[in-house]
Amino acid sequence: MNVIVKGALAAGALIIIAAGLRVGLRENGTVASSTPSAGAEQQRTLTIAAASDLKFALDEVLVRFRAKHPGADIQVTYGSSGNFLAQIGNGAPFDVFLSADVAYPRELAAQGLVAGEVFLYAVGRIVVWVPRDSPLSVEQRGMEALREPAARRIAIANPQHAPYGRAAEAALKSQGVYDTVKEKLVLGENIAQTAQFVQSGAADAGIIALALALAPAMREQGHAWVVPLDAYPRMEQGGAILKRAKDEALAREFRDHLLGPEGTAVLDRYGFSLPKE
């Protein structure tokens, strides 16, 4: 049977320790927040629930957005899109939801919980990632390398609630290696925890988001093979402003910033395709 691995994370926090560099990949329940400063916007707040694959890209997008709104209190929680779907349905106080699967915000819209239209912001991709000193020849053999004896544990996100886990499982099956490796799979709660498993040595290889593999620490410390797009269903990522948003105007400004030239340039740099591509 698959081994379900859950990190012992205090208060849901996820910290990846990378050789000489500590990189925060915050999972469900972890909040990255700005410090409100005095000014006209002091009382404005924005709380974002974001899929874990966005960690590095969205943090960069928010640098410029926060600079435009220096008095606003802007917080981000990173985690599993499926878990966020359940939390928002149960009344979690988020203003904006950025999902790794557009089907989730569309489901919230069908429940009457969305203000305005659901929007597409990116198309995600997956890679097979191994540490730099790994004997697995993923760059030459792709997923076939996962059959090698050195691949004793292979990390993927939990397909039950993580879109990147479903993509990984689909790719393993389409590439004809799933039956061989299914007993080796270890499951992360979300794609950030999955990356932590393989980066920390708890797994020998991982199928993770390209956006995480392109983050500086992981890019420098490992090798990746980009899984062909036709190996798994297209990963359209979408978002929505929620009806319970405390400041809908600020939420709309954030959406427009994310979808505008500055936001899309950052997403492109982290390996996301744009929805129109």
Q: Structural class per helix/strand content?
A: alpha/beta
Major sheet attributes: 6 strands, mixed
Mean pLDDT: 87
- H/E order of the elements? EEEEEHEHEHEEHEHHEHEHHEEHH
For the largest beta sheet, what order do the strands appear in spatially?
1-11-10-12-9-13
Shape: elongated
Strand segment count: 14
**Percent of residues in helices:** 25-40%
Strand content: 25-35%
Provide a count of the helices. 11
Radius of gyration: 18 Å
The separation of the N and C termini measures 39 Å
In the predicted model, the low-confidence regions spanning at least 5 consecutive residues are: 1-41
Give the gist of this structure.
With 277 residues, the protein is α/β, with parallel strands linked by helices. It contains 11 helices and 14 strands.
